Fold these 3 entries.
Entry 1:
Amino acid sequence: MSEQTISGTASAARRHGDDDVRLAEQGERWLATGLSCEPADRAGAEAGVRIAYALAGLPAPKHILWLGSPAAGALGVAMLRTGQRGGRRDEHIRRALEAQGARPGELDLGRSVRPRVRTRPWAQARAALMTKLGGTGFARHWAATARRPWQQLTDQLATPLRTRIDADLAGRLSARAGQTEQVAELPQAAREALLDAIGGQHDAAWLAAFDSHPDVDGLARVAGSAGWWWAFEHVAVLTERPVAVHRDNLGRLHHGDGPALSYPDGFGLHVWSGMPITAEVAAELPHLTVERIRAEGNAEMRRVMLEHFGFDRYLRESGASKTQSDECGTLWRVTLPGDEPLVMVEVLNSSPEPDGSFRTYFLRVPPTIRTARAGVAWTFDLTEEEYVPLQQT
């Protein structure tokens, strides 16, 4: 291979490396947009809406309305579509609409223009980038820019949010089973409205791949300024961004002291390590007892309670049985009603703490484990025979 060829190969590798860094930084910027808890930039968002309509070949909406959360947005759209005013729990939404001159039953939304405003520009931007980069190049570009924002925003945030709103609305329908069709009309219309929602800031999950592409300019401006929104012929309904987003080190929604995701109108999601929980369970977490955990009939909720309470504390306070002990530690076991037993290995850390003491750890292991040695080996993905403690560093 000639020196010129080697030099060219090295130069191309550097370019690819520089591109990867730049694209990763682009993805992180959009991820930050998707996680923003700043108050909506209403003027910027409304300008973005008008640009999105213009790019779709549509006149600007006659009315742009604002509501406090995606849940309020879905119900607000349903009120305007059906003319239903809702009950006491919906009063804040109705008042917000009326304060903006939008009384349910008196404002014509027109048909949904989401396919033209959101779906078509996305497809056009994707096709243009695919033509420019080719299949392999596009896949690399997507992985560098959008893979992480998609996982963090769509999978960990937007999907649980949509699921929770839909479940709440479905619960309202169930509670009203057997009542008049008119009473059920509002929650059903709100569930249907969820299908028309545009992600706003959560569209950053895919906008990261199409940074500065002209076809998505309007969508990008709204994403940088507001939360979920709805596009109709005559009306656009926009919503605020959250006031708080709490996540764990894996990016999952997670908070043990209030909602993990909360909006300025009071709507929120209570979540523990990515597991949605009810507000009632969330309120109990700081005050749990062994008896309350045992009494919980839902196995998933009991596991949330155990994590918050602390497995080692539960062992101490629940009368767990010491089933075996060896040079690797002590094996503890306690029965959980309607669930697999809780089995943990108590081990002493071989490295001293700064004060010279040695810390005790509890490692949860499968209920099939019968010795402490086998339990510690399992944490290293080894069999009991393969595990040689003196060779571990």
Entry 2:
Amino acid sequence: MWNFEEFVRAAGVTVDELAAYVAESQAGAVPVIRRRPPGELAERLGLARWIREGGMTAEAYREFLRGYLAEGTRMHHPAYLGHQIAAPDFPAALGDFVHGAANNPMAVYEMGASAATVEFEVLRWMLDTVGFGEAGGGVLTHGGSLANLTALLAARAAAAPGAWTDGVPGDLALLAPASAHYSLSRAAAILGLGERAVMPLDVDGLGRVDVARLPDALERVREAGRRPMALVANACATGTGLYDDLRGIGEFCAAADVWFHVDGAHGASALLAAEHRHLLDGIELADSLIWDAHKMLRTSSLAAAVLTRREGDLDAAFQQRASYLFYGEQGFDLIGRTVECSKAELGLKIFLNLAWRGERGLGEHVARRYATAHRFWELARERPGFECPYEPESNIVCFRYGTGDPVDVRERLMADGAFQLTSAEIGGARHLRVTVMAPATDDKTLEALLDRIAELGNPRIQEGR
């Protein structure tokens, strides 16, 4: 039984410490990242003692939580320019809090009618936004990798209806650009196709699918004795943030009768921003699509949508028997569309962000992050020694400075916790990579980053130390 007085005290501590943590992070006065060795960090947090002895109180919890938060990565920090994970808005955090207490794993409707109904409505909004409308189907999953797997299961069911019971035919192929997210090749292996079944599409120098050469790619597949299970396009590419020509690819797939899958995990949220919606022209032609809320919709991890243009295609992805769960007519159960049975109340987090901010507010968030990335590109181009291989289309910018090793520069930036950013290869060359996720990132942050990179990448400055 819960001790409600203790719960209220501990919840108050949680709110106080998290509020202070986010405020401190947004101000940028502390390191954006810390990377103590696990053994040292476990000792500092007293993990072994707490596990063995228990006995934590609200005040002890306060000290633990303060240390725990201080040693993590601060997503709200202006210098957080690393991975494609949201600086979550507080309504989504409330959704996590509610789920932590109510714990309604609602893939089976009777386990959480309100949570399931909220998910239905969130999915209906997503389907309408994409252009699939009433004919489409959807489900929320724990992350984009699982979403891609689920979408490709639907594609496999369409290409090889007997695969679930008889095994996967050896002639299926997945067509994808090299810039596709790694989860696509992983999904091919999990599905039984094998990585060798992933056949590359021709791309331009920045990794975007070359629509004019799609017939050549399809011919190579057929010459290899295979038939296409699905063709993948990026909206946008994880490494570069660049969008493929969805209309051109979609029209080709429709004419060739090839399943068209769009990985819109990161970039589909641009549908909400009027000035960027054109980047997704043709998305309504997709047979399947994934869209992560925990990237640009400011939802905490994880919440990703799998959407199909025809609802029946998603229902065909799984076939299962379990007398303790499936009683013939499933009604409103979502379990037939997901890997997960005990699925968290993912729709609640998305709904609360929408309920607080609305479509317009979330669209403005996307537009501002895209604008900040474009501003970084402008500032970098004005400085000698900086090279940007493309004008950004999203909130992701890749660049190089001088002859410095991008991997070394990144490690030096991370060492003192002043900045977090990543890197990616373009045309075989390693580039530094900025992903603007935090609302606190401003010109001051961008200028400071450029200053620091120029300092680290200048051999003469390094030799003088």
Entry 3:
Amino acid sequence: MVFAKYLLPVLAATQVAFAAKCGDTKISSQSDADGIASCSTVKGDITVSSDFSGELSLASIEKVEGDLTVNNVTQMTSFTADSISEITGTFKLASLTTLSNLNFAKLSSVGSLEFSVLPALESLSFDTGITKAGDVYIADTKLGSLDGITLDTVGAFDIENNRYLKTVNVNNLKNATGDITFAANYDSLQIELPNLGTGKNLTCRNISSISVPSLKTLSGTLGFYGTDFKTFIAPNLTSTGDLVFMNNKQLSNISMAALTKVNGGFQISRNDKLQEIDLPKLQKVTGAIDFSGTFNTVEFGSLEEVAGGFNLQSTDGKFNCDTFDKMRGDVIRGTYKCVAKEDNPTTSSGKSGTSSSSSGSSSSSTSSGAAVANGASVGAAGVAAFFYAIAQLV
């Protein structure tokens, strides 16, 4: 009994010491990292001090129940963790100007992934592949691809300012609950999302191709701005929020044969090589239709309702407004304007509708005003998307 009296406090103290050792950890040297090598699970955050220099290795740790943060560690050249398979919090690497090697061979799950300002990092060594992540943000890196990111589902997926990024191929991604954004990467970025079926917003700028053969529905905006692709094909897309094609100078074909509903505004402008617009199953647009450009044909074989306004202006003298004139007041509920052979076509806000034309005066129909005609309304995200698109022309 006396032995037990002294043994129990010793065991308790040992457990407290072990818990502290495998809890929140700040690493200033490799010896600090070695100090938690006996922990299969770290129940807390791991933070690397800005004073760290050289190569860092986290051995034996399999799980981090918290964040793993390396921020402004400008002298770190390599970061390896052979056994970590899961990080429940945020895996953040930021402002690591000399980091050239990143090897997490077994990592498959992160709470979120934030990589930014990694100018020396050319590849990701994620051999198992990250299949699960809440949000993914990758910006200002030297990555040439995102090999090793093999997501099934994701929240937001934001890829920006990666000037060497030539390909993005996320074969397994089926659903995104947040925004998918590609902007200011390599000018000829090719995007493959072969199994993406549903999502929120999908926005692309400065890309050369995108493949979304399985995409069926988007609850938010589908927008393309300043791209270099010639064709956009979404054979299974049935509905989306705001739909915008703006300033895509090589775009000559839009194919959305299954599209039936646009839950917001629909804008096409400054796509000078686009001659024909054919949406055979489109039935309803809850916001405004705002088309301006050089096209000679617009076909809506099934259109039943445009709840907002209608602005359609073309430079082509062969274009005919008769079909749409007959829809005014019945199918088209808001303000109306249709003009053929317009030398300077404009959007409903009065901005230039082609790359060669100058801005004209505002027409009677605007994206936001027309969208609320006759009691119809467009959500804040839809209006914001239109104002953003219009701002690009200023």
